[in-house]
Amino acid sequence: MDVDAAKALALGLAAGLGAIGPGIGVGYLVGKTIEGTARQPELGGQLRGLMFLGLALTEAITFYALVFGLLAFFL
Amino acid sequence: MTTVSPTATAVADSKLAQQDVPPAAPRKPSLLGRLFFPVVFAALAVWGVFIALGDPVVKEKFDPTEEFDLSHAVIGGHWEVAGIDLSINKGVVYLALALLGSALFALYVYRTASKRNKVETKTQSGVEAAYEFAYDQIAGSLPNGKLFNRYMPFVASVFIFIWFLNMISFVPLPLGHEFIGGDGGFLRAFGVYAVSSNIFCTITLAILTFGIYHYEGVKAHGLLGYLKTWSAGQKGPVLILVYPVEILTNLVLKPVSLAVRLFANMLSGHVLILLMMALAGVIGGSLAVSIFAQTMGTGIALVFYLFEMGLVASLQAFIFAVLSAIYISSAAEEHH
Question: Cα B130 to chain center, whole Å?
């Protein structure tokens, strides 16, 4: 296989596969927050704050995968 | 006649009261409301045709990663001191602007805080809301007392500074490499660039936090005591497994994840916006394909621009500051 093609494949695979886990995580997180808010609406504000914190932490994992993909692509 | 308890009557009354409210008349969509989507779509299509019909040589040359190249001096020439490149590139300008913004913010808070009895203006209440948010939501992660007083200013200013860095990155500024109208022009090409999409900017901020939480940890427990708190409450042979992971977490993963999270978020957002704004140049193809791709791409770029500016920019600033506060307090807190 051509080296450039392999690099492009590596970037695509790393970024794509790396998005699966965080996707599940974000869905779970938001779903549980909605569930919690529906159960106890008075805690909604607090839960939303925690949700955003968790969202950013979960979302960041996608970017680790992307960064490693980019490393494979450019190095 | 049945007797009704007072609470039941009250409930019935309130229900009645609710029903008495006349239903709101269905709102007539205004002319602006009806024309909104057609006008937006027409504008996108105009941009699409404009880019698709553009100079094929220019389109061929287009590369979004060029926007992140910092090797060109924007103000002054190429300055070098003792082999270190000190020329003022656009990253420096963006940093200076964000610094100016946060300094003005701080000055404004300081000036208005001393004039309590004046009527509150809109700007003032907005700025105060931002300050209160930094005080309660971000510094709230610090334990009360000495640590709070010492590091509330740090985490709050990290928040405000990164927020300005991220928000300025969505304002098109004339700081590109090329000049409008060829090399002779006096105005540089406009572009959106985020200095927080450069890892050296974010890793510097992360190293600040890294230094502070280790300093506070050593100060609270002593050097050996601080190293003992990394055992995460475990005792015995499990430590062989736990301790290396904790060393890795404390020395590498915490600062690197802080830096990479901010940098990668801003970088991917800006690459996406730039890529979509000139999609026709990226994918090429026939004229019809170009026009279609560019119209769609411009729409996607617009949506992502609003999403990045409205949510991601503020969220990442918030996360960076909150995690800094959490790391500082977890290093200094008592472990049992």
Answer: 14
User: Which fold is adopted by the domain A3-74?
Assistant: F1FO ATP Synthase (1.20.20)
**Dist. CA B120–CA B114, nearest whole Å:** 13
Indicate the residue of A49, A53, A63 with minimum beta-carbon distance to B265: A63
Is residue B82 assigned to a domain?
yes
Number of domains in chain B: 1
CA distance A3 to A22: 29
- pLDDT tens digits, one per residue of B148-173: 888 888 999 999 999 999 999 888 88
- Contact: B265, A59; criterion CB under 8 Å: yes
Chain B residue numbers touching A59 (CB-CB < 8 A): 265
pLDDT of residue B163: 92
Note whether A7 and A73 are within 8 A (CB): yes
A56 neighbourhood in chain B, CB within 8 Å: 261, 315-316, 318-319
Write down the pLDDT at residue B336: 43
Which pLDDT belongs to residue B202? 93
Q: Which of A49, A52, A63 sits opposite B264 (nearest CB)?
A: A63
- Nearest CA distance, A23 vs chain B (angstrom): 15
| 3-class DSSP assignment, residue B122 | helix
Q: Which residues of chain B have pLDDT under 70?
A: 1-29, 55-60, 116-119, 182-184, 284, 334-336
Asked if residue B26 is part of any domain, the answer here is no
pLDDT tens digit sequence for A24-40: 999 999 999 999 999 99
- Within a domain: residue B302? yes
Sign of the CA dihedral B34, B39, B45, B49? positive
Asked if the Cβ–Cβ distance from A56 to B319 is below 8 Å, we say yes
Inter-chain contact B260–A55, Cβ cutoff 8 Å? no
- Model pLDDT, residue B22: 58
* Domain carrying residue B258: 44-332
Q: Does residue B21 sit within a domain?
A: no
- Residues of B engaging A, defined by a Cβ cutoff of 8 Å: 137, 257, 260-261, 264-265, 268, 315-316, 318-319, 322
Element (H, E) at B320: helix B313-332
Distance from CA of B233 to the nearest CA of A (A): 24
